[in-house]
C-alpha cells in the first residue's frame, strides 16, 4: 500500500466548512448596521432586496440557518395535522430533527424518486393528494421541493421539470416550498438565472453559508404577505438578530461568488473521474457532491480519515462535497490518498 501524500487533511465533509476570507471579514467589520428587530438594519435590507431580485420574489427575509428558513416556511404554510409532501430523503424529512412535525405540526409523506435520483414526477404528486376523502383524512397542504437534492448526490431539477412539479402541486391545491440550500449550484450547473428555478414556488429558502462561503445565514423569499408572517415566526423562534448587518455583509460578498461554483463542479467531476480510474464506483456528479456507494460507509470514512481525506457516511455510502477551500491540487491529493482497488477496505467492485 502506498502511503498517503503528506499535508493537511482534505476536508470534503461539506461545503459548510468554508471559512470567511479576508475580503469577507473586512466587509463584515465595515458593515453599516441598525437594529433589525426594532426597525431595520440597512445591510440586512440590502441583502434581502438583492436576493428577492435574484429569485424574482416580492420580498425576502434573512434567517440564521437553512433549517430555520425551512421551519419558518412550514410554520407559515401548515396548520396542525396538515400533510406535506417531499421527495424521499429530503433534508426537511431526515435532517431537521423532525421540526416539521413537532413545531410546524406537519405530517410528512415521502414521494418516490420516479423521475430520477431525488426527483418525483408530477403524477406522484397528483396521486399522493387525497381528494374528497372522509372527514378523518389528512389535508394535503404543501409540496416541499429540494434543488439540488443533497442526499441524492447534488442532483439538479431543470426549470421545465420544476415547472411541471409546481403546476401539478398547484393543480392539486397545494402550496409549494422550495428548499434551495444549493439552488445556486443548480443555477450555475444549468446556466440559468436562479429565478428560473424559483418560479411557481410560494416560498424559497437559499443558503449563503454553503458553497458561497458565508459563515452564517440563509434567506427565505416569497410574497409580501408570506414574508410579513415569516418575520413574526422568525421572532417566535428566537431568530431575530439586532446588528445583523455584520452577518448580512458576509452574505452580500457571498453573492459575488455564485459563478465560481462552476469550479467546485469541475473539481467534483475531477474527483469522481480520478476515483473511477482507481477502480471505485462513484456517481457522476451534476454539481459539487460525489457519492461513493459502499457497503460499510462508516468504516470507509474512518479509513479515509486516517489517510487525510475527510468525508461523511450516509445511508447510501460515502459523501464528498467540493467547495471554495478545496483546490484542484487538494482534489488530486485526495484521489492519491484513496487506497488502491485491491487494498480497498470496503465497497463494491465495479
Ligand atoms: C444544509 C441544508 C439545509 C439546512 O441548512 P443549515 O443552515 O445547515 O440549517 C437545508 N436543506 C438542504 C438541502 C441542505 O443541504
Automatic annotation (TrEMBL):
Transmembrane segments: none annotated. GO terms for cellular component: cytosol. Pfam families: Beta_elim_lyase (PF01212). Its cofactor is pyridoxal 5'-phosphate. Residues 11-295 form the Aromatic amino acid beta-eliminating lyase/threonine aldolase domain. One of its GO terms (biological process) is L-threonine catabolic process. Keywords: Aminotransferase, Lyase, Pyridoxal phosphate, Transferase. InterPro entries: ArAA_b-elim_lyase/Thr_aldolase, Low_specificity_L-TA-like, PyrdxlP-dep_Trfase, PyrdxlP-dep_Trfase_major, PyrdxlP-dep_Trfase_small. One of its GO terms (molecular function) is L-allo-threonine aldolase activity. The modification N6-(pyridoxal phosphate)lysine is found at residue 210. Belongs to the threonine aldolase family. This is Aminotransferase class I/II-fold pyridoxal phosphate-dependent enzyme. The lineage of its organism: Bacteria, Bacillati, Actinomycetota, Actinomycetes, Kitasatosporales.
